[in-house]
Structure formats: structure tokens, C-alpha cells
Amino acid sequence: MQYAAVDAYCLIHILEVFKAKSVTEGNSVESAMGLQLSQLDLGLKQIFDTQQNSNKMCGIKFGEALEMVQAIPPDFCKTVPISDEEVTALPPDQANRMDYVLSQIVRKYGDKILLSESDRKPKISRKKAKKSSGRVANTRSPTEGGEEWQGPPPWDATSGGNGCPKFLCDVMVEGLAKHLRCVGIDAAVPYSKKPESRDLIEQACKEKRVLLTRDAKLLRHDYLLKNQIYRVKSLLKNDQLVEVIETFQLEISEDQLMSRCTKCNGKFIQKPLTTEEAVEAAKGFQVIPNCLFNKNLEFWQCMDCKQLYWEGTQYRNAVQKFVDVCKLNE
User: Fold this and answer.
1) What is the pTM of this model?
2) Among 13, 122, 199, 250, which residue's CB has the most CB atoms within a 10 Å radius?
3) Pairing of strands 229-231, 166-169
């Protein structure tokens, strides 16, 4: 609406420019007493070419546009003779006043558009309707079959598990997988980048994991088990981590922090490497900064992807972050 108001204001001045050019090109506009209805639909060129038409014609034809910006202070609407010189932008002080005035107009006329009931319903194309007409829709609500956790989890000892929590995070909560690894929890990701729903569930069953997702559609599959999937409700990764810890009653200690490879979910070697051993292990694979050689640090290597880690500033900051997030100090 603000843009439209500026449009109307500018068009009035554009008209003045056209009028001035018409005068300089020799087709001056003369005054006329009357106005014929047949002339109302004339174009701008025809208006100025017809000598009996005048400012009165233009005033009537463009009167409504002028009313749209009638709230603008008089000094904005002064009729200034326009020459062939280049038209420049408004000075900053006038531009600021223009912004204020236009905002007042928007406040006065900016009523919300109310949608009718038919507008609220999503429209389905004929192609989609035809495609879906041949099969029976699953009418089970998302809350049935998995939105609220129904244990025990697959890793539970009573279910034949080893008691170690294991999760599978789909692409919608991939960042949560790294956070879980940072607090020492086994968190895998799908084998492929764009897995099918069935593939996710089969991987979770095979590896005895709970599938974590934010996709409500996954909960509607009939072949899901009640303790196979959990829909994460939080949006932020830190909040998601706390939600999973509380839902599954996971025990997190400071000793567990940064004990898994955040890159691949693998475990670290049991014995740390010296600087010399780390340099040898990193050849052709990873570059160790020279500034670490004289600091007598211990290096840890992932047994799966061979990534090297050391207890530097980033490590200490990460540990403190998850101490705070998991409220381990309390």
C-alpha cells in the first residue's frame, strides 16, 4: 500500500513533466470551459494534441489519484514549473517527511484482508486428485503410533539389548546427531542422503535404534513398532538434545563429553597418541598445525574414519557448552 501511494504521488508529477514537454515542443495546452464525455478515454498524447482540452480535463481525469495522497502536507504538492532540466531525487529532509506521511496513510487505510472459508482450504490440482483417487488414504492421526514415546527402547536389556542408547537421526534432525555424539551417545545417520521411509525404519530395526525425526508423515506407516520412532518437537539443536535426554532418561556425565567422533559416530582408540605418532598417522590425510608441536598434547584418533582430535581451545569450549546445556553442574 505504501508503494502504491508513492506511485500515485509520483504519477502526478510525471504528468507535470509530460505537460511541460508538450509546451516546449509547441503543443501548448489552452484553457477550455467544457468537457465532452467522448474525450475521457483519450490517451495522453491525444489530450495534448487536442487544443480545446486543458488542465481542467487533466484535473478531472487524475483527480482520484490526487485524493489518495491528500494527507501529504501542502508544501509537498506545490505546482512548480518544470523545465527540460533533469529531474532529481527529493532532498533527504523531504524524503524523510514523505516516509512519515505515507506511513500515516498506510495506518489509516491498511485494513487486513480477511480470507473466506473457501480461500483457507488448500486447492488440489486435478492431476494430484486423480492420482490419489485410486488408493485408500491412511486416516490415522499423527499422534497415533509414535508421536509420544512408548517404550521400552530397543536397547533395553529386557528386549535383548545391551543397555547402550542408540539413535538414528534422519535428515531433518541431522544436527541433533552431532550433538548427541558430543555427549557420548551413539547417534547414526541414514546410509543415503535421500533415503526412503522404509529404508530408515529397516536401518533402525537392524541396528536396534530409535528413529528420531520431525517428519509427522513417518509416524503414519502401518509397519512401525511403537518403540521404533520418536518425533522431536523442539526446533533448536540444544533444545532437541535436552528433549531427547529427558524423554529417554539418558544419564550424561562429564566424562562422556566429546568421547565419540562427531564426524562418523565412531569410537576413539583406547590409548592416546603422542605428537610424533599423530604426525605419522595424519600423513596424507590430515594436517596438524605447527603451533601444537611444542604443547605436549595428547591426540585421539577415530577407529573408523581415522580423524584425529586433540584437547585444544575448541575442545574446552565444546565441553563447557555441553556442561551448560545438559546442566551437569546442577
Assistant:
1) 0.55
2) 250
3) unpaired
